[in-house]
Write a structure and sequence with these properties.
Blueprint: E1 23-26, E2 32-35, E3 38-40, H1 45-56, E4 62-63, H2 64-72, H3 80-95, E5 100-103, E6 106-109, H4 117-133, H5 137-148, H6 162-188, H7 192-205, H8 210-222, H9 226-243, H10 250-260, H11 296-307, E7 315-320, H12 327-337, E8 346-350, H13 361-371, H14 383-394, E9 400-406, H15 409-412, E10 423-428, E11 439-442, H16 448-459, H17 461-466, H18 468-477, H19 482-493, H20 500-506, H21 513-517, H22 521-533, H23 537-546, E12 554-555, H24 556-563, H25 567-579, E13 584-587, E14 590-592, H26 595-608, H27 611-636, H28 659-668, H29 670-680, H30 686-695, H31 698-701, H32 706-723, H33 726-743, H34 746-763, H35 766-782, H36 786-803, H37 806-822, H38 826-843, H39 846-862, H40 866-882, H41 886-902, H42 906-919, H43 924-941, H44 945-962, H45 967-979
Parallel strand pairs: 7-10, 7-11, 8-9, 9-10
Antiparallel strand pairs: 1-2, 2-3, 4-6, 5-6, 12-14, 13-14
Length: about 1000
């Protein structure tokens, strides 16, 4: 598809000089002059016109007649010449500079290039065109974006005179051309979803500009919105016929035909196959060990196999063997040797296939796509779409992919490149006979000579030569397993007072290691027993107890809780374990076990720790998470009584200096916290596990962790039911209710809330009672059962007041406002929402204050007070953004679009609705259908009737699928268009 190369302002500029230090001038907006942080008065409109005329001449002299013509045109006033001199004198005085000079009967303003926003923007645009010519699209886009940032509304705004008017038109055209070029690059670099909103607004502002329509069609198509893309073409063709009597230009018609036949080339840039202009070059391989030894035959075999990637097939090699046999070490070593064959980068991931928490292929693909330069907004949701985009991103590139510790072939297949030139190395505990086309390598233990060489390289030639027989005993005791040899040798190397014989004696075959090495996982236990047996007692205890906890890793603070030790003592122990390779340092202050080491650590704990000590360690970890999450909840929701109803804990948890620190902790610990809740669900920790989900309920609403939160909540609920604990079951059901509400699954939410209320009432637990009343009111409202909703919310208000929970009361009042609004009681609705705002203000509850402002904004929109509504809704949007509630941000954008449409701002409404679609909303498909309906109304107001119809058709489909009564309203919108 053709592309504008991007224009630039064509004025010729003279060399600059003069004394204008510290002055900065702006013409890409109102004409302004700044010195440092101070804005200088530019004077009367005619004085601004004089200043603009001098600035736009680039340092060249303007004669008096030229300036008179620039300011007044062909009919100047009688004293025009005197006026020009007066303006020049005032301007020189205001600027306090010698840069304004008089010469040849005229004037010139001599300033540096970087003192005028226009010339800086010109230079950035020039650099962008050079970068584009060099094929660096990413840099070109960034430079164009920088140039466009200088615009502050209309250029030369309010400056009178024909000279300013001519340049205003020229600069406006240049601006839109730069925008077109930058948007073109947005599409070329995978930002099509982000571009839709901006292009929708621009096509509304410039309806006859076909290039913008073409870009919008392509952006919609690449966003999976083919019907809307075709509707844009239909709108454009009709508009051009009605306004100009012409057909669309050939490029636009050609694009329509390609969309109709689903041309695969449209899915990516036509001139370059990469997702970004200059593809990211990932280099993710872990460091190779400096003492790599042996495996010569395997290194040659795998190296030769990788060399075939240069031919017509993709090379895949799969290494299999028992844990600790050195699969990863060998694969990383071979990958580093082959890096020169793969100049476009190397990708690496640990698939954690030996655990119950193996990495999901879609998660890995998301990480790989980001590493390859794909923007987050361009990464699709489904596994198949991500895999397809991944293969497209690798097409034409030479990339090596190392998939470490795979579970099975099914986990690996979506992660394999699809074209020649790329290669994959896979390691796994299982032999992947069902991985089609893979070159299978079975990796066995080292030969005695290789094992001894590895041991010698770590310990040192001098010490081993003196005790060769003892060294052979050591490697034999290790079963010639590389990981066991490395652990033993590292321990010896770190202890200069030990002899090799001392180590050999410690590794005597008292626990029948060689026999165990012959039987699957037992061989792994025997290998790790070598390092474990050398630990100091305090290190051994830390190793065992930390291995009990689920979760991908553990923070230093959480480990301190498990061990019941101060942070500095805990850190010393953990770093000691890192030195023995029994623990990994995932990041500063965070630690993780290799999956097999964790299993071994748990086996050690069950063997060496008393049951009550194991239970106490996990109980301390749960207390830590619950106490800290409760603190976060209290910071986020001051005045909320929930923390007072939680199970007591044995510790205070972490303290935070501010809300941001609290939020950072909650989201950083999300996976570990939820793993702890799930693990604690069985046994005496059940109630605290349920309360942990309560305190961390923001994770269920954030969007980023909602699915995991739902899975864990379901597991905890099952445990509560199995235990016959009505109080725990009621609380778990309230958490699950919230999950279903966020997803728009109202029938399931109502069922859970009803059961939660009955159970909580029977257990004498007040919070789930009024929470369930509030939730059922929301559900009944969304399902159109307004009398029931009003009754539920009245109970919620009573329950909240009885418990002294002012934020709970405010929440119910705001929800009751929505019901009054639906029943036509607009003023009552505004009053109720205003009361909610007042209560949240009084408690300092900033998160739910955003919800109250949202409810008030909706009510004000219905009352026709759109300006006030937009003020409240933008305040709500800012609040949700501060609290990282992405789905609520999207829902608020939807309501902003409604208010903008009601106030006649169709273009602004279309842009806000597009942003809502891109962000996502609370309420699932039902709310998405509402957004599409509003978007269609906005587009219809802009004359884009075919695209409006496409939006309404999709909305109708969603409403019909959910059985929503709003389907009839959308049918009414479609009928007149259909009849037309």
């Amino acid at each position: 598809m053709g592309r504008d190369s991007g224009p630039r302002v064509p004025d010729q500029r003279a060399p600059h000089g003069g004394d204008a230090a510290g002055l900065h001038f702006s013409v890409l907006g109102p004409v302004r002059v700044r010195r440092g942080g101070e804005t200088l008065p530019p004077g009367s409109p005619q004085q601004r016109a004089l200043l603009a005329a001098l600035l736009l001449r680039g340092g060249r002299t303007a004669t008096a007649p030229e300036l008179i013509d620039a300011i007044w045109g062909p009919e100047p006033p009688p004293q025009a010449l005197a006026a020009v001199r007066t303006y020049a004198s005032r301007l020189r005085k205001a600027l306090d500079t010698q840069a304004l000079v008089s010469e040849s009967g005229g004037y010139a303003l001599r300033i540096a290039r970087d003192a005028l926003d226009l010339t800086v923007a010109e230079d950035l645009a020039d650099d962008a065109h050079k970068a584009l010519a060099a094929g660096d699209r990413g840099r070109a886009r960034a430079l164009l974006a920088g140039a466009l940032e200088f615009w502050d509304g209309e250029a030369l705004a309010t400056v009178p005179g024909p000279y300013a008017e001519n340049h205003r038109a020229r600069l406006a055209e240049w601006n839109i051309q730069l925008l077109e070029t930058r948007l073109d690059l947005d599409l070329e670099t995978g930002r099509h979803a982000e571009a839709v909103s901006e292009l929708t607004a621009l096509t509304a502002a410039h309806p006859l500009r076909e290039r913008l329509r073409e870009l919008l069609m392509l952006a919609l198509y690449r966003s999976g919105r083919q019907a809307e893309a075709l509707a844009v073409y239909a709108d454009t063709r009709r508009l051009l016929a009605e306004e100009l009597g012409v057909d669309p230009r050939p490029e636009l018609s050609d694009l329509q035909e390609r969309i109709l036949r689903a041309d695969a080339e449209l899915a990516r840039p036509s001139e370059q196959p990469a997702v970004a202009a200059r593809p990211a070059r990932p280099a993710q391989l872990p460091a190779t060990v400096p003492d790599f030894t042996g495996r010569d035959a395997f290194v040659r075999e795998l190296g030769d196999r990788l060399a075939t990637a240069e031919g017509s097939v993709m090379a895949v090699s799969a290494l299999a063997g028992i844990g600790g046999v050195g699969k990863t070490t060998l694969a990383v070593h071979v990958a580093h040797q082959a890096r020169g064959r793969f100049p476009d980068g190397q990708l690496y991931v640990d698939l954690q296939g030996a655990t119950s928490r193996s990495a999901e292929p879609e998660t890995v693909l998301g990480s790989f796509l980001r590493a390859l330069g794909t923007a987050d907004s361009a990464i699709p949701d489904t596994l198949d779409e991500r895999a397809a985009l991944y293969r497209s991103a690798l097409d034409g590139r030479r990339v090596l992919v190392l998939l470490d510790n795979a579970r099975d072939a099914a986990q690996v297949r979506p992660l394999l490149p699809g074209t020649a030139g790329c290669a994959a190395l896979v390691t796994s505990r299982v032999r992947m006979v069902d991985l089609a086309g893979a070159h299978l390598v079975d990796l066995d233990v080292m030969s005695p000579d290789e094992a001894l060489r590895l041991f010698t390289r770590i310990v040192g030639e001098e010490r081993v030569s003196a005790e060769r027989e003892a060294a052979l005993d050591v490697v034999a005791a290790c079963g010639f397993l590389p990981l066991a040899i490395r652990i033993a040798a590292s321990r010896l190397a770190a202890r200069r007072t030990w002899t090799v014989s001392v180590l050999a004696a410690k590794l005597a075959d008292e626990r029948r290691r060689l026999d165990e090495l012959q039987a699957g996982d037992l061989a792994v236990k025997a290998t790790f027993e070598l390092g474990y047996g050398q630990l100091e007692p305090s290190q051994g205890r830390a190793f065992r107890l930390l291995g009990l906890a689920d979760g991908p890793d553990v923070s230093l603070a959480a480990a301190s809780a498990v061990l019941d030790l101060p942070a500095h003592d805990t850190e010393d122990l953990l770093e000691g374990l890192v030195d023995t390779s029994l623990l990994e340092s995932a990041a500063p202050g965070r630690y993780r076990f290799h999956d097999l080491v964790r299993l071994y650590a748990r086996a050690c704990a069950e063997r060496d720790e008393r049951a009550d000590d194991r239970e106490a360690a996990l109980s301390r970890l749960l207390d830590f998470y619950l106490a800290t999450a409760a603190r976060v909840y209290g910071i986020e929701r001051p005045g909320d009584r929930l923390p007072d109803h939680l199970e007591p804990t044995g510790g205070a948890g972490l303290a935070f200096a501010d809300r941001r620190g609290a939020q950072d902790w909650l989201y950083a610990e999300a996976h570990c916290l939820l793993a702890c809740a799930r693990q604690a669900a069985a046994g005496p920790r059940l109630r605290r596990a349920v309360d942990l989900l309560w305190a961390a309920k923001d994770l269920g609403e954030s969007g980023a962790n909602s699915r995991l939160y739902e899975t864990v909540t379901g597991a905890v609920l099952q445990a509560a039911r199995a235990a016959g604990d009505r109080r725990a079951e009621a609380r778990a059901r309230t958490s699950l209710t919230n999950v279903h509400l966020v997803a728009g699954r109202y029938d399931l939410a109502d069922e859970e809330a009803a059961q939660a209320r009955v159970l909580a009432a029977a257990a004498g637990d007040p919070v789930p009672v009024y929470w369930s009343d509030n939730d059922r009111g929301i559900i009944a409202f969304n399902q159109g059962r307004y009398p029931e909703a009003e009754e539920h919310l009245s109970h919620a208000i009573e329950g909240s007041r009885a418990d002294g929970n002012r934020p709970g009361e405010a929440s119910a009042l705001c929800n009751l406002s929505r019901i009054h609004l639906s029943l036509g009681r607009t003023e009552e609705a505004i009053a109720l929402a205003g009361k909610g705002v007042e209560l949240y203000h009084r408690t300092g509850h900033t998160l739910r204050l955003a919800n109250a402002r949202y409810a008030l904004g909706v009510a004000l929109t219905r009352a026709g007070r759109c300006a006030d509504a937009l003020d409240r809704l933008h305040e709500a949007l800012e609040g949700f953004g501060t609290h990282r509630q992405r789905l609520w941000e999207g829902t608020t954008l939807f309501r902003i679009a409604e208010a903008q449409l009601a106030s006649g701002g169709a273009a602004q409404a279309a842009r806000s609705a597009e942003q809502a679609l891109a962000t996502g909303c609370i309420g699932g498909d039902r709310i998405r259908a509402g957004v599409l309906t509003v978007l269609g109304r906005a587009l219809d107001g802009l004359g884009q009737r075919d695209r409006a119809r496409a939006c309404w058709q999709e909305a109708l489909t969603l409403h019909e699928q959910s059985g929503s009564a709003e389907a009839e309203q959308v049918r009414g919108l479609l009928s007149p268009l259909g009849a037309a």
